[in-house]
Structure formats: C-alpha cells, structure tokens
C-alpha cells in the first residue's frame, strides 16, 4: 500500500502534461477554439473526478484497493484542468496573469483550509460510511459547481480580463503612474 502513495501525483503529472499537449494540438489544428478547448478540458477535469468521488463513497470497507484506485483516478484526472482554468489567466489577461493567478490561488486555498474542519465535523463522532459519503458528495458538489460556473462565465477572450485588471490596477496606483499602462 505504501507504493500507492505517489500514484495520485504521478497520474496528475501525466494527465496535466498530456492535457496541455492535446489542448495545444487541438488549437494548432484549428479543431477547437481556445474557449472550446478550455471548456472541454474543464468538463473532463471537473465531471469525471466528481463521478469518481461519488463512486468511491459506495465502495465498502472490504474493497479498500478499489477505493484507492477510484480516489487516485479522481485526483489524477482533475489535472486535466491544467488545460482549462489553470492557464486561462494567460488567455484573458496576459499582462496581469501573475496577479490573477495569485488572487485565484488564494481563493482556491479556502477549501483546503475549511475542508478538514468540515470532514472533522462530519466524521469525528460517527466515522460511518454514511458520514464519509457526505464528505465525498460535498467534494463532488464542489467540482460540479465549479464546472457549471466555468461553463457559464468562463472565457478565453483577452479583452475582459485586461479591462478588469487595468481598472483594478489604476485604482491601486498613484495618479501619476497610470500612463505606463
């Protein structure tokens, strides 16, 4: 079982790099637009892990190897988002991609902080399969909500992000420094 520990990270690496390569190929061959590529890989990276997490919640204690495989696949396939929202900052505001990445990573860290607390609340008194199913359903729900939000408002157009970041940047800078934008 110890040999399984790096498996999610190895799979994440393989899926993340492969997703980027396939996404670039789809764009280079004009098979899909940049926005379509982002949404296709978002669908893969959000929905498949959500389904795998729900499936994991139904695996009994007698099948721990299957649970580990399903959970590993969920974590690994989530890396398909490397060709979705992870690089989307470069699409919408190339000049401010670093700032956007910092802001979104900060917000994206909140589930990592709140998640263990919620898991503790749900499982400390009753670490039953039903309680753990709630944990997996909540996680799957976060994936599905993220997917829906990205499908509805996600874009690969440069104008929107640049305009928003330029406005934000102008509010933060001194009046005399705005001509550099």
TrEMBL record:
PANTHER family: FI19708P1-RELATED, SOLUTE CARRIER FAMILY 17. One of its GO terms (molecular function) is symporter activity. The lineage of its organism: Eukaryota, Metazoa, Cnidaria, Anthozoa, Hexacorallia. The keyword Transmembrane applies. This is Sialin. InterPro entries: MFS_Na/Anion_cotransporter, MFS_trans_sf. The chain crosses the membrane at residues 6-28, 40-60, 66-87, 99-123, 135-156. Keywords: Membrane, Symport, Transmembrane, Transmembrane helix, Transport. It is a multi-pass membrane protein. It comes from the Eukaryota. It comes from Desmophyllum pertusum. Its main location: membrane. It is found in: Membrane. GO terms for biological process: monoatomic anion transport. One of its GO terms (cellular component) is membrane. The keyword Transmembrane helix applies.
